[in-house]
Amino acid sequence: MIIVMKPGFTQEELNEVVKAVESRGAEVDKIEGVATSVLGLVGDTAYIDPDELLTFKCVEKVLKVQEPYKKANKLFHPEPTIIDVNGTKIGGGHLGIMAGPCSVESEEQVVLIAKAVKASGANFLRGGAFKPRTSPYSFQGLELEGLELLKIAKQETGLPIVTELMSVEYLDRFVEDVDVIQIGARNMQNFNLLKEVGKTKTPVLLKRGMSSTIEEWLMSAEYIMSEGNENVILCERGIRTFETATRNTLDLSAVPVIREKSHLPIIIDPSHATGKRDLVEPLAKAAIAVGADGLMIEVHNNPAKALCDGKQSITPETFDEIMKKIEVYTELEGATI
Amino acid sequence: MIIVMKPGFTQEELNEVVKAVESRGAEVDKIEGVATSVLGLVGDTAYIDPDELLTFKCVEKVLKVQEPYKKANKLFHPEPTIIDVNGTKIGGGHLGIMAGPCSVESEEQVVLIAKAVKASGANFLRGGAFKPRTSPYSFQGLELEGLELLKIAKQETGLPIVTELMSVEYLDRFVEDVDVIQIGARNMQNFNLLKEVGKTKTPVLLKRGMSSTIEEWLMSAEYIMSEGNENVILCERGIRTFETATRNTLDLSAVPVIREKSHLPIIIDPSHATGKRDLVEPLAKAAIAVGADGLMIEVHNNPAKALCDGKQSITPETFDEIMKKIEVYTELEGATI
Amino acid sequence: MIIVMKPGFTQEELNEVVKAVESRGAEVDKIEGVATSVLGLVGDTAYIDPDELLTFKCVEKVLKVQEPYKKANKLFHPEPTIIDVNGTKIGGGHLGIMAGPCSVESEEQVVLIAKAVKASGANFLRGGAFKPRTSPYSFQGLELEGLELLKIAKQETGLPIVTELMSVEYLDRFVEDVDVIQIGARNMQNFNLLKEVGKTKTPVLLKRGMSSTIEEWLMSAEYIMSEGNENVILCERGIRTFETATRNTLDLSAVPVIREKSHLPIIIDPSHATGKRDLVEPLAKAAIAVGADGLMIEVHNNPAKALCDGKQSITPETFDEIMKKIEVYTELEGATI
Amino acid sequence: MIIVMKPGFTQEELNEVVKAVESRGAEVDKIEGVATSVLGLVGDTAYIDPDELLTFKCVEKVLKVQEPYKKANKLFHPEPTIIDVNGTKIGGGHLGIMAGPCSVESEEQVVLIAKAVKASGANFLRGGAFKPRTSPYSFQGLELEGLELLKIAKQETGLPIVTELMSVEYLDRFVEDVDVIQIGARNMQNFNLLKEVGKTKTPVLLKRGMSSTIEEWLMSAEYIMSEGNENVILCERGIRTFETATRNTLDLSAVPVIREKSHLPIIIDPSHATGKRDLVEPLAKAAIAVGADGLMIEVHNNPAKALCDGKQSITPETFDEIMKKIEVYTELEGATI
């Protein structure tokens, strides 16, 4: 971190800044020029808040040089993290293909879809039991009953389960029953929830918040990791922009940016990002080509009757075609599913 | 709600749509033209999800005519809601001025500030005990100890307390000790937390999410209200845009828009919106002039040493000047503090 | 400007950076610390492009300390600029109230509205002769005929004319006939047009681009000013965000931000910003309260028949009420119309 | 277009709406239900402005059913447009790879790069002679001299030239010397410039504005096409969002969205979108995989000395590697360069 001092500051003012920096565990390297005075902060600056430094009247500007995350930082962990979910791997060339219905609706539905997506090559079953809905009057998911149905589908197919946790209340159940705990976009900065899943050992799929910068997203991963759980999978699912042709704007650039900054695996959810089923195939191919570690795709046996988000769901037949098409893109990236 | 049908749909397809609509409690008014077929939905359409209707192949477009919220809707409650917090009112001409430190740091600090802001005319004490921070390494607030200090400041001044709840875990304590429970921007769509505060009778200050539309914000209010707690105060605190000169972009238009759509009171937080202490005064005046029901302002006795967000804090002296200046704006709006 | 060097750079690399800086007219103040090496740039850094410096492999980060604009910068011109438009002043406590129809439609229309808005206290007539429209099939304005009608209205009322120039082709006509040349939001970075109006002496109203930062906006003003024309009035008219309840999001914070950075006057256009006539009054009051130097308001004698943008137009009667209401706000700011 | 009427409208009010619609060349299909009255507009609705209809007090809502563009609309031109630039084709399976320096700096530079990119497989030379720069103090390009240098490079390599036109003043020179006229993002709604290039026969590369919706972009293409020039190539180059890790957010979803709505070819510019040279390769691959009709890539022989935008430029060697890598992606899409 670099602090640019205002011209004419006093020694007393400088001392106050130095004291503040040292009280947060870093050291000050005073670097004096003829016309400019700059302080370079040395050591661990993670505990220093640039905004706090700006409260000092003698401080002109503050420039972050190091990233504020540590455990998520590639600098201190250059090799890509490979997350092992009961034998199925994600990261470092292993793609995770998570497919399934937006909402779990019945045993018949979820088992049928699970079998279909497995046959097409998916290696995870995703399905919503607890659903975050904008309206309190919309269908909120089958909740615990949905979780039971997912377990049946897992028994039938062997596919590990990915499903969203919305409340600490059910964390124990999730740890017991679920293979990957999904934290949804709306809860990306529900810090309490992040800390609690951080205390478990269950892999966490952390969706990017709709208006979250990549840095904030990695800081949310850091919340989980700093509690001890380093099994974090990032999932880009579109950010909110002014464009209305798609539900959100899928930020595929996030994949190479994350690759540069972090060792954590990152997957892409083209279904939620666009809200349009015809866009899933082209964006799935692009996601693999850009280097993503996997995909999350909504698949439904009868989109016209899905209880939620049917507009973005594809049928098992379409999913099968997509899987065939992405096969060669996967090979080109030197990856395997 | 209006459904525009695609040309050439079959009777069978139409029946499916009608069935779906009726299963959600509304009725279909088929309105046939020479070249266009349109379905008008009659009755309560709150349970109908436009996205679901778009999954039907015969449906071209869906247009919402009514707003999706009911209890927050001005249509069914034309008079402004006045929320009575143990005798202090907000709404319908009563302004709530909530002032205090970003973080509660010590008894001395919070009592001193509470007395100062009361003397200047504030009628609520705001102060953070639990702090949502982007980084897990930043100061997270004094937590329960902070709550105790707020209670002391309340005893000393009589000012009702507004403070943020981040986890259901502490809800009972908040119901007991706190006068207004604040739900922060990052938790605006933490639906679980919304439902739980909705089951209490304590007034709720609901901050707008950084990337939330006004409609989504009112739907989050609806989550609280639909559980039985109709004491919701909205708080605009800036939305996320591309502009970097201010931390967020304060959306003052939200005040007259909310006025048109809802009966709930709405206040403005210029401190968090801009992140700059020099912008607080002009935006506080503008907020009153645009018709807001109150303000939330960060006040600190020594901004340079504040443990968080000092850059946006003003001193008690500056707060006093602002209060003097907004007095006449308050009168112009026919309001009282 | 501050350059943070990467650890381990060579003397040769440093020399290249120094050479690049000096070739742009600035000097390098090398400020060496124990662990960090920083270059402070001294002198006029306006010709140095931070992005160019980042191309050097030895450069880690670049931090701008000074603003990149010079003539628009308050630092070098602390007193507010007062622009005198044939006797009518804007800036430094003089408010410019620009009212009139979105499109000039007929002599009768524009004269009638001009007389009405003058009677209510407006001191400028605004009206579109050339209209920027998203669709080539929409009405594009009466063009030169519209300009003639504006001149008639000016003769009848004495109000100076503000109207939009979209093409260099008509610049001479505008210089001759128009009192303030408006550059629309879509042309804010039409640098060719900016340079050409910069070569005239006619005051320029520069609208903020829909996705322009305040810094880019001031740089566009700088384009005009650097050619010799320092009579620039800024006009905030809403920025593009995800919110759809209003057409754009009016950024009233821009007023105090501009006040801090520049000496140029800034006015507010609540009509275009919101696209809703009911929001004009509250936002007009807020604009004066936040310290704006004036307003631009669409007024139409029959909104229901306006050829464009009727939805946001108010009637002369409503305009008269607004003018009465903002009178006291104007006084409170110590300003005069 | 569908008009939803407010309950209780009078016959007289209805007549006024019908008259307005008919005066714009469309017809009204009145579709009456029991509880809702809706007007369906039949015929060519391109001349009808939804905002105008909303000015009528009896109109509740207006819903566009057809897209507002005609010549750019796939509905009326289902086959993909293939643009033939003196024998080099773009669209319908033919990829256009446009490579070259951001700014033309010298004959040596541009000829060297042109030869290199041709050898690697590029089929167009792009290079800036006139440069749009945020600051009037930044290098603005060699202008007409740069154009001459591009012509020399064309003679030496046979590559057709793509370069940006910023002012109508030079249109004749561009028509004579240039193969594809680029309209930059900042001029996407410079309607005057669009109309003028629309009167030529030279192919136009139309970059998307930084805050333009896909619909607005296609309407700008329509401006060019409605004047007679149907040779429009669209170019996505990133949109402005809150994210700061990349300069803009590349919207790759725009490719399949455009494919669905229009017959015009669309290419991707990963260099400007991200502003980071390391992101060019992964996004170039993703662009081909998502179905784009080509790429625009900045290539410079010495990025560290480029006069502008060097940070995003890659060397000819890196460009060669990228071209080798995208070869197989091109084949997978059934396309040829």
Automatic annotation (TrEMBL), chains A, B, C, D:
<dbReference type="InterPro" id="IPR006218">
    <property type="entry name" value="DAHP1/KDSA"/>
</dbReference>
<dbReference type="Pfam" id="PF18152">
    <property type="entry name" value="DAHP_snth_FXD"/>
</dbReference>
<keyword id="KW-0808">Transferase</keyword>
<dbReference type="InterPro" id="IPR006268">
    <property type="entry name" value="DAHP_syn_2"/>
</dbReference>
<feature type="domain" description="DAHP synthetase I/KDSA">
    <location>
        <begin position="87"/>
        <end position="329"/>
    </location>
</feature>
<protein>
    <submittedName>
        <fullName>3-deoxy-7-phosphoheptulonate synthase</fullName>
        <ecNumber>2.5.1.54</ecNumber>
    </submittedName>
</protein>
<feature type="domain" description="DAHP synthase ferredoxin-like">
    <location>
        <begin position="1"/>
        <end position="67"/>
    </location>
</feature>
<dbReference type="Pfam" id="PF00793">
    <property type="entry name" value="DAHP_synth_1"/>
</dbReference>
<dbReference type="GO" id="GO:0003849">
    <property type="term" value="F:3-deoxy-7-phosphoheptulonate synthase activity"/>
</dbReference>
<dbReference type="InterPro" id="IPR052899">
    <property type="entry name" value="Class-I_DAHP_synthase"/>
</dbReference>
<dbReference type="InterPro" id="IPR041071">
    <property type="entry name" value="DAHP_snth_FXD"/>
</dbReference>
